[in-house]
Amino acid sequence: MDLAAFLIQCLNSLQYGLLLFLVASGLTLIFGIMGVINLAHGSFYMIGAYMAYALAPIVASTFGGGFFATLFVGLVLAVILGYGLEWAFFSFLYEREHLQQVLMTYGLILVFEELRSLLVGDDVHGVAPPDFLAGTIPLGEMMTYPVYRLFISGVCLALALGMWFVFSRTRLGMMIRAGSTNREMVQSLGIDIQFLYRVVFAAGVAVAVLAGMVAAPVSSVYPGMGNQVLIICFVVVVIGGIGSIRGALLAALLIGIVDTFGKVVFPQAAGVLVYVLMALILLWKPSGLFKAG
To answer: Which of helix, strand or coil describes residue 233?
Structure first.
């Protein structure tokens, strides 16, 4: 492997790890802070990808907007969807057993898959990146790297910094962290914990939808894509530590490196290397790399 090929694999592992973090951060918010095992989280990623496919022509014809207008409309719809789902379903699950949470969220997976089939069919679709991000940059004499993949990494890094700032430096972040530790005490201080949880859930849905929208041009759009990403996101949450945003970031980057280079160096064993990594880390630190926060 020459230097250019090594650099490309490093960029691929960074882009994949950051995209995983974007999806898994929403899951760790919902799972770690609200205590809800949300098997339907991967469906939000799928919804985002199908939004990128279906909304682009509607936004272009209605508002005359392009790529960023589509992202904005998709995020608004995602926040509304998340807020409505928390109000209608998830608000009843906080005091329930995990088995009931699993059963209800699995039912949501079936509902979302059936709606997807009815609305857009079961075909595989491609989504073209915007023209201004469709180019490549040279890496060495023979290789190039897509600009759009760098854009994905930039978006994920910006959101990671934004989440760190909100949770570490704002009053909202302080209330969310307090609510995850002692819900009754936060309520006794006059804070509407129900509204706070709805904000957290809507934010978790929004980042998963955004991840699906920005990933659509590089991964294509196909049935069942949410189920595949859900498993690896749970691995990210477990390795990083339940409820830890920085843990999710570090775990996602580690998985990106192991998965990307594993497919190059050990292609026959690439499918299990991520789970070997999880087993080794849990043997070392059973609660994950970081505590919640």
So the answer is: helix
* Residue closest to 109 by CA, chosen among 49, 39, 51, 45: 39
| Close Cβ partners of 293 (under 8 Å, ≥ 6 residues apart) | 167, 177, 243, 244, 245, 246
Give pLDDT tens digits along the chain (293 positions): 677 788 888 999 999 999 999 999 888 888 877 888 889 999 999 999 999 999 888 887 777 778 889 999 999 999 999 999 999 998 888 878 888 999 999 999 999 999 999 999 899 998 888 888 888 888 777 788 899 999 999 999 998 898 889 888 888 888 887 777 777 787 887 888 888 889 989 999 999 999 999 999 998 899 989 888 999 998 999 899 887 888 889 999 999 999 999 988 887 887 899 999 999 999 999 888 887 65
For 284, the token pair is 């070392």
Whether 157 contacts 18, CB under 8 Å:
yes
In a 3-state reduction of DSSP, which class is residue 189? coil
What are the structure tokens assigned to 48, written together? 């985002």
Residue 170 CA, distance from chain mean position: 22
DSSP E strands: which ranges in the chain? 136-139, 143-146
Residue 88 to residues 34, 84, 104, 145, 189, Cα–Cα distance (Å): 16, 6, 12, 44, 26
Number of Cβ atoms within 10 Å of the Cβ of 130: 14
Alpha carbon distances (Å) from 82 to 78, 90, 97: 6, 10, 22
What is the distance between the terminal CA atoms of the chain, rounded to a whole angstrom? Answer: 39
Exposure string of 162-183, with b = 16+ CB inside 10 Å and e = fewer, is ebeeebeeeeebebbbbbbeeb
